[in-house]
Request: fold
Amino acid sequence: MTDSTLQNPLTSAEVARIKADFEILERPVGGNELVYLDSGATSQKPRCVYEAEQHFYETANAAVHRGAHSLAVEATDVFEQARSTVASFIGAQPEELIWTSNATEAINLLTYSFSNASLGRGGEAAARFALREGDEILVTELEHHANLIPWQELAFRTGATLRYVPVDPQGGLRYELLDELVTEKTKIVAFTHVSNVLGTITEVGRFVAAARRVGALTVLDGCQSVPHLPVDVKQLDVDFMAFSGHKMLGPTGIGGLYGRLELLNDMPPFLTGGSMITYVDMERAEYLPAPQRFEAGTQRISQVHGLATAASYLAETGMQRIADWEEHLGHLLYQGLSAIEGVRVFGPQDAARIGTVPFEVIGVHPHDVGQYLDSRGIAVRVGHHCAQPLHRALGVTSTTRASTYLYNTEEDIARLLEVVGSVREYFGV
Ligand SMILES: Cc1ncc(COP(=O)(O)O)c(C=O)c1O
Reply:
C-alpha cells in the first residue's frame, strides 16, 4: 500500500461518496434509515463487485485450467489475474495464495494437511508438519472458534497437546507469558491478528519472534485484519494466513490461505480429486505444486473475480486511510458507549483497535438490545460471536457488538449512541 495517511485522511464527504456505492445501505429497515454496524459478521458489497460477477457470467463463463476453447482460456485468465491481484493486496506471490471457501476452510485445510503428514503422507518432505505426542500447538484465548476447534481436532488426531495464551480480565493478551508458553515442544503457534469480539490488534511480531526462537510454524487468522488494516504477510513474517472474502467487500463462498511457497510445496493435500494432479494410475497419484495441489475440483471463478474487484476497490481507497477512519469511529464508539450510564464496554481501553466495540447494557439481555436496535434500523450482532472461551474469560455469556467499516459515518455512531442511551428506560431497568 502506498498511501500517505497524514497528508490525505479519509474525509466525511469521501465516506458519504463511498457509502453511495453500496446500494443496500439505502434501503429502510422497519421504516428507519438502515445503520449497518455488523460488518464484523459480513461486509456489504459495492456495486462494482456484483457487476464484475455478472459480467463474468455474461462474457466468459467456463471451467478453468481445462479445455482449449476460447471461453475456458478467458475464464482461466480472469481466475489467475484475480489471484495476482489478491496476492499483491496481502503482499504475497500469486502461487502462495490458495483459494478456499472462507477462513474456516483455510484453517481446516492446514490442520488436515498436517494430520495427513502425521500419518506419513507426503514422505520426508512433509515430515516437518507431522505432530506426535509430546508436541504442542499454541493458540490464544481470544480465538474465534474457526481458529480453535480445528487445532483441538488436530491435537486429538495426533496426540499433540493444545495450549493457549490467556487474556487478562479486560481481554488483553498476556504477552508476558509467551516466553514460558513457547518451548522446544511448540510446533505451531496459531493466533488472531484482530479479535473479532474486542476489535483489538495483536502484536504479531511478539508471537512471530517467540515462534522463530524454537522453529515453530506461525499461522495468522487474518479474517478481521485483512479487511480493515494494511496487511503484508512478508512484513509480518508469518508462515500462513487465513482470510475470508465476504468480510472485505467480496462475495460469500470465497476466501484464501496464504502460505510460504516452500512450505506449501512440501505439504500433503487436504482435498483430493480432479485438477490437482500430474499423474494418476489405479494405485496412486502424483500432485501438482501449489497452488493447484490444494485446489481440487471445479473452482469458484465468479467469486474469485468478485473478490479481486473488492480488493482493488479497497486498495484504491487506501488501506491505511480506511484503518485510520475506522480507528476514529472505534474511538467514538468506545468513548461514547462508556459514557452512557448502565453500559459496560469490553476490551482494554488503551489497546490499538479497529472500529469494533462489544458492550453490555446492564440488566437487559443482549438479544433484547439487538431487537430494540433493529426496531430503530440499527443492525448489530449479539451473542458469543463464535468466541465462547473469550466470553467466559470476560465473565459473560454474550455481548452486543457494533462493528464498523469504510462506509460508516460519524452520524451512524451518533445514532447508535442515542438509541443505546434509551434502552434501559425502554425496558424499565
Ligand atoms: C477472527 C475470525 N476468524 C475466523 C472467522 C471465520 O470466518 P468464516 O466464517 O468466513 O470462515 C471469523 C468470522 O467471523 C472471524 O471473525
User: Anything to note?
Assistant: The chain is about 35% helix and 15% strand.
